[in-house]
Amino acid sequence: xxxxxxxxxxxxxxxxxxxxxxxxxxxxxxxxxxxxxxxxxxxxxxxxxxxxxxxxxxxxxxxxxxxxxxxxxxxxxxxxxxxxxxxxxxxxxxxxxxxxxxxxxxxxxxxxxxxxxxxxxxxxxxxxxxxxxxxxxxxxxxxxxxxxxxxxxxxxxxxxxxxxxxxxxxxxxxxxxxxxxxxxxxxxxxxxxxxxxxxxxxxxxxxxxxxxxxxxxxxxxxxxxxxxxxxxxxxxxxxxxxxxxxxxxxxxxxxxxxxxxxxxx
Length: 265
Fold this sequence. Notes:
Layout: E1 2-9, E2 18-25, H1 31-41, E3 46-52, E4 55-62, E5 65-67, H2 71-84, E6 91-96, E7 102-108, E8 111-117, E9 122-123, H3 128-134, E10 140-143, E11 148-151, H4 155-160, H5 165-170, E12 177-182, E13 188-194, E14 199-202, H6 209-220, E15 224-229, E16 235-242, E17 245-250, E18 252-260
Parallel strand pairs: 2-3, 4-6, 11-12, 13-15
Antiparallel strand pairs: 1-2, 1-18, 3-4, 4-5, 6-7, 7-8, 8-17, 9-10, 10-11, 12-13, 13-14, 15-16, 16-17
């Protein structure tokens, strides 16, 4: 039996932000079991963590398999550990398994600040399939080693996009498709689409900001920015640029506590 939590990350109130499943375990369970748990939970990510020395080992599974980096589920995991396990701590260290990232989360009053690696995007070519899949023409296309980024000149276009997810899956480049534009009320807005791993839209995608922060920092000349994910649930991300690292901060709200009866099946 596993203790299980659901936390709304990058949220100021319940039913906002991005819900993540969290399992804090005494030891690792088989990959196949973690994969099945994530599919059963059917959230964009379920995080699994095990204390290893002074840090926690951390892995994230989507309904479509394991992923190398996830911001909102890291925030949710830190929230659970700060609140229920390491109640006197203010800083947590995580070592990830797929790419051996070292992540740091600091509790600052009601916000949780995550120290993540920067993902620098490079210019990329626009194709007809991209335009068909998005349903609108971006002014610029960028690519990281994992994701595609589409820049639009209108916040309203980003808010109102209705992508064809079957066509997004057909784009050979990029695991995900991020869309972003400058904003009147925030420094920028964004949305994140992941149909290739069975998540049409991720309500708030923390890892996306690892690439959006350096882009918008160059455009706006700001090291500190506030972004808004304009998904249906919505969420606010406080962003800071530190060269090869970025800091992402947000709130978290507990939705549920339960048990996963994995040993009874």
